[in-house]
């Protein structure tokens, strides 16, 4: 004679994982993972890594370089006490073959998944692997303007150079662009305003070197770029593109 009996065991979740995404002005994405120990005993965090999707390369930002050695920011003992939370930071950058195609990074993209391995106080190993993490890529409209190069400090009333990248985010429409440069109270553009940039095909980009100078000291905002699509008679305005620190020539020499 046989009889069947079922036993119910309450299984508690050992870790609470929360994620946040931060989109940089470039195509880089910063992922913050908050991991909390919600058990009643400490645990040893053996490994916390991010396995990126095929679109991204990942760099861990959880260590610092001290005397030529890579030292973790959490110290030599990676124990996580009960109800304590630890934050891990990762930087993801699109691979070159995907970054060159503006349309691919649009909408919802898969970032990757977290792989967490820990040990309890009795040496028992546990592992948690999240599902694929997704983020909503920021919308840039039809035309995106980003900075490829800009100095952080410039000298008052002396020209400096920046490099802009203009991308046609449309997947099916060619644009014929005209660049206008409008001076502000502190920023003055050098060059011809209203020049033709030519045709920009879908999902393609062009780099543009521009020269400007500042007439006011302090932290100044680079503003005043206008792109006009002559086909649709539509103008795109770009203000507060970046900030530069403007100092006098005497201050620059002393530093």
UniProtKB/TrEMBL annotation:
<dbReference type="InterPro" id="IPR055429">
    <property type="entry name" value="TRAPPC13_M"/>
</dbReference>
<dbReference type="InterPro" id="IPR055428">
    <property type="entry name" value="TRAPPC13_C"/>
</dbReference>
<dbReference type="InterPro" id="IPR010378">
    <property type="entry name" value="TRAPPC13"/>
</dbReference>
<dbReference type="Pfam" id="PF23643">
    <property type="entry name" value="TRAPPC13_C"/>
</dbReference>
<dbReference type="GO" id="GO:1990072">
    <property type="term" value="C:TRAPPIII protein complex"/>
</dbReference>
<feature type="domain" description="Trafficking protein particle complex subunit 13 middle">
    <location>
        <begin position="15"/>
        <end position="138"/>
    </location>
</feature>
<dbReference type="Pfam" id="PF23647">
    <property type="entry name" value="TRAPPC13_M"/>
</dbReference>
<feature type="domain" description="Trafficking protein particle complex subunit 13 C-terminal">
    <location>
        <begin position="151"/>
        <end position="246"/>
    </location>
</feature>
<protein>
    <submittedName>
        <fullName>Trafficking protein particle complex 13</fullName>
    </submittedName>
</protein>
